[in-house]
Amino acid sequence: MQLLRTSIWALGIVLLILIGLYVHSLNFNGPEWLKDISLNVGTEVLSILLTVWLIDSVFKRNELNERERITNIAISQLRLPLRKHISMLLGMYKGALLSPPANPPLTLRDLFGPNYIAELTFFDFSKPAPILNIQPIDWFNYP
User: Fold this and answer.
1) Lesser CB count within 10 Å: N end or C end of the chain?
2) Residue 34's closest CA among 46, 49, 19, 13?
3) What is the pTM (predicted TM-score) of this model?
């Protein structure tokens, strides 16, 4: 990427020099060949700069799309374990409550509010865990 950026700067400087030569040959009645060559090469350098810029923008867009795709894959792989973990934390919160709350938490922000830590002080690991199994298990053995 650094090489591409350096190349664009170098081509830009060459283009400016060629434009300067062309303007110099127009203003000071320079030789005809200098005017023709500077105009011809300047046009070529300008088209090269435009092509490099367009290709670079396509590469950047593809890189952003690839990064977004990888991020979406990573988030989708985290969804199930995160859901199970939050379900376990919610179960711990429900197991720690002495009585059902008047307003149960509807969002994660409500769940992990200041009451969460205060209520977890009453949590008993010997109580049965929220699992649908033939034999009830306690929180110590909860998977």
Assistant:
1) C
2) 19
3) 0.50
* CA–CA gap between residue 137 and residue 90 (Å, rounded): 17
The CB density around residue 58, as the number of other CB atoms within 10 Å, is 10
The CA distance from 37 to 43, in Å, is 10
Contacting residues for 137 by C-beta, under 8 A, at least 6 apart: 128, 129, 131
Strand partners, 138: 128
Does residue 107 surpass a pLDDT of 90?
Answer: no
Note the residue count of the chain: 143
State the pLDDT at residue 71.
Answer: 94
Q: What is the C-alpha separation between 31 and 63, in angstroms, rounded?
A: 48
| Cβ-based neighbours of 123, under 8 Å, separated by 6 or more | 92, 95, 96, 139
Q: Dump pLDDT digits (tens) for 36-53.
A: 777 787 788 778 888 888
C-alpha to C-alpha distance for 103 and 110, rounded to whole angstroms:
10
